[in-house]
Design brief:
This protein has helices spanning about 25-45, 65-90, 105-115, 130-135, 140-145, 185-190, 215-225, 245-255, 280-285, and strands spanning about 1-5, 10, 20, 45-55, 95-100, 120-125, 150-155, 170-175, 195-205, 235-240, 260-265, 270-275, 275, 290-295. The protein is of the alpha/beta class. It starts with a strand and ends with a strand.
Length: about 300
């Protein structure tokens, strides 16, 4: 098992009891539904479907009059019910929550997940303004900074998969440090039979060159974590040298057409991945697939 700096532990037999999916009805958050449905059915977990309805305007125009707010409120309620029916029809247990607040969406999402047993968060995040807003101050980043539970983020570049939420191809990005393995214990229950796992290490040109046997201890570690689930699995190891780690990892994920990308996140005031400052969020925003992250 792996423990983070604040004591939260990912055990090899850990499974979520509640999957909180926060939706703003954007394309990214709707793409997360197929994966959320699969996760709930695989784990036997309940789904907590949350939409944060912000009462305070965040744009340069005047606050809408009351009838406009009421129209938006009703529309959000209808959309939540439509999503809930789709999940219920698929056999999921769903609790729907519409949160009206003047607080930030991240604050309310963190508050909602605090009352859940063994939670897993699923978020969609997308572009509204300039690229700088991707990297600083978004709802997704604020949630990732402040939660210790696993988070699956579906970014704006996530492509629709013909496998409908099935996890047949998974990519683990590692710098060979302990924290980069934090999400691995979550894999055994998630992966399909005969799944493909690619373990990739991207080094900066200024880093020390890896020896020829670099993958031997890594192979032993992955095999130990996966246990019986690793039998029959196609596992391969790849090493690259690149100046832009996030860009290279996203390119590899795209080339391998993966269904899920795993990264470990460094605990700290600013979001940082195990492979460099802000790299984690850059990967999330550029990845062609959902990203499963655990702070460790």
């Amino acid at each position: 098992m792996l423990a983070n700096a604040e004591g939260w532990t990912v055990k090899s037999d850990w499974k979520p009891k509640t999957i909180l999916i926060a939706t703003d009805f954007s394309r990214s958050s709707l793409k997360a539904l197929a994966l959320t449905r699969r996760l709930a059915l695989v784990y036997g977990a309940g789904i907590k479907l949350v939409h944060v309805f912000t009462l305070t305007a965040t744009h340069r125009y005047a606050v809408p009059v009351e009838w406009m707010i009421e129209d938006l409120r009703k529309r959000a309620g209808r959309q939540l019910q439509q999503i809930s029916r789709r999940l219920t029809t698929a056999g999921c247990s769903v609790e729907t929550t519409l949160i009206e607040t003047a607080n930030s969406p991240a604050t309310e999402i963190l508050g909602a997940v605090a009352g859940c047993d063994d939670p897993l968060i699923v978020l969609g995040t997308h572009s509204r303004d300039r690229i700088e807003r991707f990297l600083v101050g978004s709802t997704a980043e604020e949630v990732l900074r402040n939660t210790d539970c696993p988070v699956i983020t579906v970014g704006p570049n996530t492509k629709g998969s013909s496998r409908h939420g099935a996890l047949k191809r998974v990519l683990l990005a590692t710098d060979l440090t302990e924290r980069s393995f934090a999400a691995v214990p979550l894999l055994p229950r998630l992966l399909e039979k005969n799944a493909e796992l690619t373990v990739v290490c991207v080094s900066n040109p200024e880093d020390a060159i890896l020896g020829a046997d670099w993958m031997d201890p890594l192979c032993s570690r992955i095999t130990e974590e996966l246990g019986d689930a690793g039998r029959g699995m196609n596992i391969r190891f790849e090493h690259y040298v690149a100046k832009n780690c996030a860009q290279k990892i996203s390119e590899i994920a795209r080339q391998h057409d993966v269904d899920l990308l795993l990264i470990g996140l460094h605990p700290g005031k600013r979001l940082s991945a195990h492979i460099g400052p802000k790299t984690g969020f850059q990967i999330i925003m550029s990845a062609p697939c959902p990203v499963l992250s655990v702070r460790s």
